[in-house]
Design brief:
Number of helices of chain B: 5
Structural class of chain A: little secondary structure
Number of strands of chain A: 4
Oligomer: heterodimer
Shape of chain A: flat
Number of strands of chain B: 64
Radius of gyration of chain A: 20 Å
Largest sheet of chain A: 2 strands, parallel
Mean pLDDT of chain A: 62
Strand content of chain B: 35-45%
Helix content of chain A: 10-25%
Strand content of chain A: 5-15%
Distance between the termini of chain A: 46 Å
Number of helices of chain A: 2
Radius of gyration of chain B: 37 Å
Strand order of the largest sheet of chain A: 2-3
Order of helices and strands of chain A: EEHEHE
Chain lengths: ~170, ~850
């Protein structure tokens, strides 16, 4: 198992799969540490505010998911590695229930795939699973079916109702 | 001695004549030569010199220096790099912007100086920048008038000039914009369906009246689908949604619909999306000021809408907590990234003018702000933003499609407290498919990736090359042209736009752009030439095959990427083995630094990587300038000047081949602190030789009328000619008189404080060129060793009668001149020497 995967092996390829109430995620243990940098260590002063416990994501919310660079920097700056990781991993499915993808942008793409290995550790050829591929296979698209209620216009879920904003969708 | 070449016949047939000899020494413009046996050189060449130069005007002149910016007391850190920037005058406003000099110290921020001839006062202003990594030396390149890309090995940044402001407003920004590193959050909301009572089309706008109150999400800007109206021309086709234009009443709305005026009844208006497979989103930052757009964020999962609308929030996963007065930020379910250092934290609910820059990232759940928080916040949503960002572009795919088209664009307001008011939130109500609205034809710019941090820059074929990247010292990275359709190509480096050279564990350490190709050196002994067309690379199109790199058969590397320059004769560089070479790409490289090789051998090895070189071409000057640190100096303290006009006119035609004894590249030496050296242009389009040092900036070739902040400074200068008498050293000579000729009246020699000397050598006792052995020195001070007055054709302070107590006798004579130190144009034109050959023995 590549070291940057989060969660258990069984979670690979199964997150967000299937129909019904998908997309809700639960906090799990911290992932492997990405590359660290920046001036100084812990800043002086009062200890950091205690983080509140994680909240359960409502079922009608597809959480934001991130892609993070990991692995040895080999001398590159963190921004460049992160940009590479974003570019490389942006279209691939994110393993683990957290929906986050950590990858070594200087490594081998084959480490991203959950496809079976060849003999020994030899990866099989091919690209990792893409978000589109998962959606077309109907295993990785996000959906929400509201509980059956009378068909009225006011069935907006009461959780996380967005703030009214001026819609700036543009004309072509 | 009209020619500076010493006739070969002088060596073949020595002058054996006995008796009085008169020789006129003029055209003394051979320059310094510390390479050839001093006992074979003629007085046209210089045995020693300091702060003098010559040229095709055939005289030796003293250098003139004047400060153009005084930094402070000597001993401060030097100006490590400088850049001449001449902004165009905008057509929209007659601002008449002056040229600027942008310069950097090794421990304080970049400064910018308006270099305006005659400007009485000015105030260089430090450019604000949060990070402590912006110190020089920088290498800069301006691909377009408003951009100056810069590299120093610790941060990737650019200077962006607002050309409509006077004085010019220059901002320092990151070079390129980091792609957002998280996908959007999508909240599904129930859609709405309303029954239409009447629909009336007037002048291509339909007014719809509903049977009840208009649903909340059916508002201005929302996309609505119309179906079931009796007159089907009112209905929207499959894959098309109409945007609500106005809501004149609580039961009414309007939308655009082309057709004749008509009215109808029935049908429904729905604001909801239904997809078979799903729609995916991505987003990007935009700097509207520069016209650049970042690469897109990670894509979201495909959202399979089932009669819903989507609220799209551009936020990071997790939430953060901050405490008043604390710089620490803790996260829950976050993935703080070290790539965020230097970026800015937007925190929901803050809503003030405070700015939260990220100073460090300790872990995925803990980071440090540059300034303490000014409020208490718990479980706040947040985003990380490059402070140059002004807008956000949202992209979406069609149903089960792979191409991301721009569907929306919000202005971004950092100081607004909510997602909506900050511009971080979009509402998707459009049950449509590309190419119908809101889909545009603009696709996400996946190749607009910022460059890695490098030390050095080079322009080639309209691209910017970055090298000196710590992670890839054998590679260079180049900017986009073809793959950036929206945004700034100079700020975008496709990830595969990288070329690696086979130089083992060496590093790329210099480039020069010749018309025939790009010359590339390593810090060892590698030299390559890149030809052909560089093109953007992608996985699908590896156009790079159009370019070719060949290893040149010369074992010459480069000592400093700052010490290469291209001139009208070819490219020059300081090699890794401390030689100065010229390459024209028509002939093999020529070592043109031999005359000063003894100087180059003294370069401090720890500082050779910071040697600087530039081409200074102004008026009758066409000089190659090389600044080096000698011996134990920690900063460049010797400015070596190669006269390119003399080089072009004296070498074997086109070959630049010299025998060194009778002809050589002409070098002048300045003893001036010159950690940086540039050619800078002023308002009158005059180029200046500007050196940077610990006291600021100095015009090292100053002329009356040029800009200066204070008086021209005193300069100590001297020259010692190679020996007279080398052609017949077997003959013992007695010098009878010597006349020193300058551009000044002899009567002024005393007050101007000229002085001269003759160094006599007797091969039986003293040796030319032997360190510490300067022969017998006879000082000749006007007014002291000769009369103070002038009597025509008899005597003057310019003529020194020798003999008696000023006994000058030997086999070889070196003549020395010490110039006045006070400001002025001081020119040594030659000497007349009368001596008597006594006897050969």
């Amino acid at each position: 198992m590549p070291p940057y995967y989060m969660g258990s092996p069984s979670a690979l390829g199964s997150a967000f799969a299937g129909g019904g109430q998908q997309g809700g995620t639960q906090p799990i243990g911290q992932p492997s540490q990405p590359i660290q940098s920046g001036p100084g260590g812990m800043a002086a002063g009062a200890p950091p505010p205690a983080p509140p416990p994680a909240q359960k994501t409502p079922p009608n919310v597809l959480k934001a998911q991130d892609v993070r660079a990991t692995g040895p920097s080999q001398g590159y700056d963190p921004q460049y590695l992160q940009n590479l990781a974003t570019t490389i991993g942006g279209m691939f499915q994110r393993p683990g229930v957290s929906g986050n993808l950590q990858l070594n942008p200087l490594g081998n793409l084959s480490t991203l795939t959950s496809n079976p290995q060849g003999f020994g550790n030899a990866p099989l050829p091919g690209l990792p699973n893409t978000l589109l591929g998962g959606a077309l296979a109907n295993t990785n698209n996000f959906r929400y079916y509201a509980p059956a209620t009378p068909a009225v216009a006011s069935t907006v879920p009461k959780v996380n109702t967005p703030t009214p904003v001026v819609n700036k969708l543009e004309n072509p | 001695m009209a020619s500076r070449r010493r006739p070969q016949s002088e060596f073949d047939a020595t002058q054996a004549g006995i008796g009085p000899q008169i020789e006129t020494l003029d055209s003394l413009i051979g320059g310094y030569n510390g390479y050839v046996d001093p006992s074979v050189l003629s007085p046209q060449f210089w045995a020693a010199c300091s702060n003098v130069y010559a040229g095709q005007f055939q005289t030796i002149r003293r250098a003139r220096w004047a400060p153009i910016y005084n930094y402070g007391a000597p001993g401060s850190t030097p100006v490590a790099s400088a850049f001449s920037y001449n902004p165009p005058t905008p057509g929209s406003a007659a601002l008449n912007l002056p040229p600027y000099i942008i310069f950097d110290y090794t421990n304080s921020p970049t400064q910018i100086l308006p270099y305006t001839r005659g400007l009485a006062t000015f105030s260089p202003s430090p450019l604000f920048y949060e990070l402590n990594v912006q110190f020089g030396p920088y290498m800069r390149f301006s691909p377009v008038p408003a951009f100056i890309m810069q590299a120093n090995g610790t941060v990737r940044s650019k200077l962006f000039a607002n050309l409509t402001a006077n004085p010019i407003a220059v901002a320092i920004e990151f070079w390129g914009i980091d792609a957002p590193d998280s996908s959007v959050q999508v909240t599904l909301n129930a859609g709405s369906t309303a029954t239409i009572t009447t629909a009336v089309r007037t002048s291509n706008v339909v007014l719809v009246t509903l049977s009840g109150t208009r649903p909340a999400n059916l508002k201005i800007g929302a996309y609505v689908n119309i179906a079931g109206v009796a007159d089907t021309t009112f209905n929207t086709a499959a894959g098309v949604a109409a945007q609500v234009i106005a809501v004149p009443g609580t039961t009414q709305f309007t939308y655009a619909n082309v057709g004749s005026n008509a009215s109808s009844t029935g049908g429904t208006a729905t604001v909801q999306i239904t997809k078979t497979v799903g729609r995916s989103y991505s987003w990007a930052w935009e700097n509207a000021s520069t016209g650049h757009v970042s690469a897109p964020s990670p894509a979201s999962q495909y959202v399979k809408y089932t009669n819903q609308t989507g609220t799209i929030d551009c936020i990071q996963p997790g939430t953060i907590s901050v405490a008043l007065g604390n710089v620490l930020v803790s996260g829950t379910d976050t993935q703080f990234s070290p790539a965020w250092v230097g970026r800015r934290l937007w925190i929901e609910g803050l809503g003030s003018t405070d700015v939260y820059d990220i100073a460090g990232v300790q872990s995925p759940t803990l980071l440090t702000l540059a300034e303490p928080a000014s409020f208490n916040g718990a479980s706040q949503r947040f985003q990380v933003v490059d402070f140059q960002s002004t807008d956000i572009r949202l992209y979406a795919t069609g149903d089960a499609a792979s191409v991301y088209f721009r569907v929306a664009r919000n202005a971004f307001f950092y100081n607004n407290p909510t997602l909506g008011s900050a511009g971080l939130e979009f509402v998707d109500t459009a049950n449509s498919e590309p190419p119908n609205q809101p889909f545009t034809s603009e696709i996400a710019q996946a190749f607009n990736v910022p460059p890695p941090i490098g030390q050095f820059l080079q322009d080639y074929q309209g691209r910017i090359l970055v090298y000196g990247v710590a992670g890839a010292e054998q590679s260079f990275f180049y900017s986009n042209i073809e793959t950036t359709l929206v945004g700034q190509p100079p700020e975008s480096f496709a990830p595969l736009n990288q070329v690696t050279l086979p130089i083992g564990d060496g590093s790329l350490n210099g480039m020069a752009n010749l018309p025939t190709g790009l010359i590339i050196w390593s810090d060892r002994q590698d030299m390559f030439k890149l030809t052909g067309l560089l093109t953007d690379n992608s996985v699908a199109n590896q156009y790079q095959l159009a370019a070719t790199i060949q290893r040149l058969p010369y074992r010459i590397g480069c000592a400093s990427a700052y010490a290469t320059t291209v001139t009208s004769l070819g490219c020059f560089w300081l090699s890794s083995d401390r030689e100065v070479w010229l390459f024209t790409d028509h002939y093999a490289p020529k070592n043109v630094g031999k005359p000063i090789q003894d100087i180059l051998n003294r370069i401090n090895g720890d500082r050779i990587a910071f040697a600087k070189m530039t081409n200074y071409k102004s008026g009758d000057r066409n000089w190659l300038e090389l600044a080096v640190a000698l011996d134990g100096s920690e900063t460049n303290n010797k400015l070596c000047t190669l006269d390119l006009d003399l080089l072009a006119s004296n070498g074997q035609a086109s070959y630049f081949t010299f025998d060194m004894a009778t002809n050589q590249p002409t070098w002048y030496l300045y003893d001036i602190n010159c950690e940086s050296v540039i050619s800078a242009v002023d308002t009158n389009s005059v180029q200046h030789l500007v050196v940077g040092n610990s006291i600021g900036l100095t015009d090292a070739d100053w002329h009356p009328g040029y800009y200066t902040v204070s008086a021209e400074v005193n300069v100590v200068a001297n020259v010692t000619l190679h020996a007279l008498g080398n052609e017949n050293p077997e003959v013992v000579k007695t010098m009878n008189w010597l006349r020193a000729m300058t551009n000044q009246l002899p009567s002024q020699y005393i007050t101007q404080v000229w002085s001269f000397a003759v160094l006599t050598y007797d091969d039986d006792k003293t040796v030319l060129g032997n360190p510490g052995n300067t022969g017998n020195v006879v000082n000749l001070v006007p007014g002291t060793q000769n009369p103070t007055g002038v009597r025509n054709l008899e005597y003057s302070p310019a003529v020194f009668r020798l003999g008696s107590t000023r006994f000058v006798k030997g086999r070889r004579f070196q003549i020395q001149a010490n110039f006045p130190t006070v400001p002025g144009l001081w020119e040594l034109r030659g000497f007349q020497v009368h001596y008597t050959n006594l006897v050969a023995r």
